[in-house]
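Hi R.,

Here's the input for the methylmalonyl-coenzyme A complex you asked about:
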Amino acid sequence: MNAASALGSLGVSPGARVVWEAVSSLEAIIVALGVLRCGAVLVPVAERQSDLERLTVIDDVDPTIVVAERRAAVGTVTEPPRELLARRGPAVELDGAAADDVALIVYTSGTTGRPKGAVHTHGSIAAQAASLTSAWGWTAADRLLIALPLFHVHGLVVGLFTGLSTGGAVTCQPVFDTGAFLDAIDQAAATMAFCVPTMLYRIDAHPNADLMASLRLVVSGSAPLSPRTFEAFERRGISILERYGMTETLLTISNPLEGERRPGTVGRALPGVSLKLPPAGEDGELLVSGPTLFAGYWRRPDATAEIMTDGWVSTGDIVRVDGDGYVIICGRSKELIISGGFNVYPSEVEDVLRAIDGVDDAAVVGAPSDEWGEVVVAYLVTPAGMDVDSIAEKCAEALSPYKRPRRFTEVEEIPRNSLGKVQRHLL
Ligand code: MCA
Ligand code: AMP
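And here is the predicted structure with methylmalonyl-coenzyme A in place:
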């Protein structure tokens, strides 16, 4: 029995949501593809999320079943089964699924309120596969290596789904271990690797970093790549291709495959994407439109309307364009910390901190870090004294490890403006 039929026999019908614990094992990936194949909706959650975070997703999405894996992932390297490799051709061929059918809901915390599910259709996923295979010359001969988590679109859609759609191989390592990643380049005969900047920073410091030079393409994204890391790889003969995206839009901007890859920029629009950019020499918010955009937030038309108007998504990223049309991400209008490529919304962490007994007020900010880009640090008003261990324990119960503050500082008050909004730049 194939995975789609097995899911059907468990009552999973087209449109039903399947909460899937995103594990980088062959078995888990077969289940995920089975969900898509039978017309159901894949909703990834991760073991690294807190129970509270996963329960919030389950509560919101109302699944028919939850598929979870409690044992350690088998081996360090998995490959798609032969049947998948044989399914060459565009990703759209998912046994009759219509482009508008919902395929995937990925939860994102957002700047306010409870986490929201970004809904992607078979059409938006297929459009992403089409734009990336065309822009990056990705073919069935390619063998992609990733150690990205599969509960975000970077690992799942950009890496796994697009890779399988080409008919090429995808090697998914369950955790990122720098040495094991470098070893896998040879073991898996990899031709491409997708990383977040923290991984490239660690690779650069590894004695075997030159093994990356055998790859035809090394792509960085999810957070700004420091020009210093870009240049360190250039010296090894590796020109990292930096690209830009967002859960709600998938990838929309990329440096070129042929031509100059510019450090500090994310390149130009991918095929099929339209951008609204500020006039030359000015900074302004980036708006994007195109076939890879999401269909809205799950059962949250209010939240959808806040970010999407007439087919344009307001990214909350502030950009500038250089003389040759390369886009530079120069800031964010949304309150967001990006740590190791993971998004942390300050309000979510502050809500947890303020609910702790003895914490009268709290604010979190991102402190610069060479390795992580930013790390989360907290400022607390604790008139009776700060019990760091107990506060850290409460954070651990409610928040994924990457959202937990690394440092706590006691302050007399949190600076706020006249509207009561935290003035983070003063902290
Ligand atoms: C792990 N820790 C973190 C992070 N990751 N802390 C802050 N920020 C993080 N990102 C915690 C661990 O739980 C641990 O905590 C401590 O830091 C050290 O762990 P370590 O073993 O060194 O870290 P790691 O497990 O090796 O993780 C580093 C990582 C990981 C591999 C870079 O952060 C990662 O997989 N990042 C990828 C994120 C990603 O895929 N984002 C895509 C979303 P303790 O000491 O307490 O145990 S963005 C997206 O999808 C858009 C479309 C896009 O553009 O791509
Ligand atoms: P997410 O909501 O997890 O999909 O994260 C999307 C955000 O990641 C974007 O809005 C950007 O702020 C950020 N991002 C993604 N790629 C890059 C990049 N190459 N450079 C800077 N920021 C990026």
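One thing worth noting: The chain has three domains: 3-97, 121-294+303-332, 336-426.

Cheers,
M.
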